[in-house]
Design a protein that fits this description.
With 357 residues, the protein is mainly beta. The protein is built from six helices and 16 strands. 13% of the residues lie in helices and 51% in strands. The protein has a 16-stranded antiparallel barrel with strand order 1-2-3-4-5-6-7-8-9-10-11-12-13-14-15-16. It is globular.
């Protein structure tokens, strides 16, 4: 057992060093012909009152994304979290083939991203806040990064886009532990300045201290009003684990000045380097239990030295030859329990430097 733990520690250390060495590799060595790569480094300082870790610096994540296109219709995707390779569900984040026989239609096979709504499917460095919502983290704890092994079909027609997938249902890099597969689907409609969508995730799972599969269902929807990075957005999620029903929702204002004062936003370029976000979230882990709701108010401010923000250059559309994009972020999460008797001191402040190559 000690040897196994020592091996994991050694692998973790080597992974972190490999991530740092990525910074020194030249773009010419990797971006040639049909092969592209990029990487994300996320360094954090966290003051977490709930754990007492009031002075914690860390290399939060070190991602490398690789894309190989042997022919126009076929692309191979690979994503590694280098400093998390020793964690079974997180080290290998993506590994799949994408076949595109038509302009707006894709077929995927392997360790795929599941077709669901924004807060679930976005790559972590592209999230609006410094982490996924508490509702998503609780309902999809077995699928970090929204990945699972299976098959998917995705497409777009006029204002509609969506997809369907058949996956193991046990999470990334884990063998299927039930006889049934999990069905995942998404459908969204887009109008000018408006997006409305929903998803369904239906399957089963093996819970701790259970020798037989139990129901695992997830349903949800999203509403977005406004353009990218200048919008009001809301999401709702509902989960069923055996007989336990849980639900959560959040509402978010993104780039507030851009929404309410577009003329000033366009006039002063320096304002475009800042991206303030406010989110209010509510999660009830068991709707049959009274005074069980938890709320989180999050305030975040992102600053990009370049007006080309990270959200404008998502992974998969940039190559390493385009240079680095830096984003500085600060976020405060104020958490409250509905039951005042169980009130915890668990507010969190997080600062992050994120570099994309």
């Amino acid at each position: 057992m000690k040897n196994k733990i020592s091996f994991f520690k050694a692998l973790s250390t080597l992974s972190a060093l490999s991530a740092l060495s990525t910074l020194s590799l030249g773009a010419a060595e990797y971006s040639a012909g049909t092969f592209n790569w990029n990487s994300h480094l996320m360094f954090r300082y966290t003051a977490d009152k709930s754990t007492g870790a009031v002075d914690s610096f860390s290399l939060h994540k070190a991602y490398v994304n690789a894309y190989f296109k042997p022919m126009p219709e076929l692309t191979a995707h690979l994503r590694l979290a280098l400093n998390r390779l020793h964690v079974q569900r997180e080290g290998l984040g993506r590994a799949y083939l994408d076949y595109q026989p038509l302009k707006y239609w894709h077929f995927q096979a392997g360790l795929i991203p599941m077709p669901m709504i924004r807060e679930i499917y976005l790559f972590e460095p592209e999230l609006d806040l410094l982490g996924r919502s508490q509702t998503v983290l609780r309902l999809f704890s077995n699928e970090p990064g929204n990945a699972d092994t299976g098959l998917a079909a995705l497409g777009r027609w006029r204002q509609f886009d969506g997809g369907v997938a058949l996956v193991n249902g046990s999470g990334p890099n884990i063998a299927d532990n039930t006889e049934a597969k999990t069905f995942v689907s998404r459908l969204a409609v887009n109008f000018e300045g408006l997006r409305l969508g929903g998803y369904a995730y239906t399957g089963d799972q093996i819970l701790p201290r259970r020798a037989y599969p139990v129901t695992k269902n997830r349903f949800g929807g999203e509403l977005c009003i406004g353009a990218q990075d200048q919008n009001l957005r809301a999401e709702y999620h509902r989960g069923q684990d055996e007989t336990t029903l849980s639900q959560g929702w959040f509402i978010q204002a993104d780039m507030i000045l851009g929404i309410f004062s577009p003329e000033a936003y366009r006039k002063w370029e320096w304002l475009q380097r800042f991206r303030p976000i406010i989110r209010f979230e509510s999660f009830d882990p068991d709707i049959k239990t009274l005074n069980n709701r938890q709320t989180t108010t999050s305030v975040a401010l992102h600053y990009s030295p370049s007006t080309l923000g990270l959200s404008e250059a998502p992974a998969g559309t940039r190559s390493s030859a385009q240079g680095a994009v830096i984003r500085l972020s600060a976020q405060y999460d104020a958490k409250r329990e509905e039951d005042q008797k169980n009130q915890l001191r668990n507010n969190v402040f997080t600062a992050q430097i994120q570099v994309q190559f």
